[in-house]
Specification:
This protein is mainly α. It has five helices and no strands. The longest helix has 20 residues, at 4-23.
């Protein structure tokens, strides 16, 4: 069972990734390709290690966020 702090950290990482995917979306590369795990971790205020304690990679963040968004619209 995750603690509230773990839940908050996980949410910070998701929000940071979303912001970066969107910010870099207008460049020649897609926002996903231009966004690195280091950038996500820095924006979220966590270490790279903390990122990997919560996610396997940036695709994991994107898919989890997409699944959550879909679930929010279905309910």
């Amino acid at each position: 069972m995750a603690t509230r702090k773990q839940d908050r950290t996980r949410q910070q990482i998701i929000e940071a990734a979303d912001e970066l995917f969107e910010e870099f979306g207008g460049s020649a590369e897609s926002g996903y390709e231009a966004t690195t795990i280091d950038l996500i971790a820095e924006r979220a205020g966590v270490s790279r290690r903390t990122f990997f304690n919560h996610f396997t990679g940036k695709a994991d963040v994107l898919l989890l966020d997409l699944r959550t968004a879909i679930e929010d619209h279905i309910v």
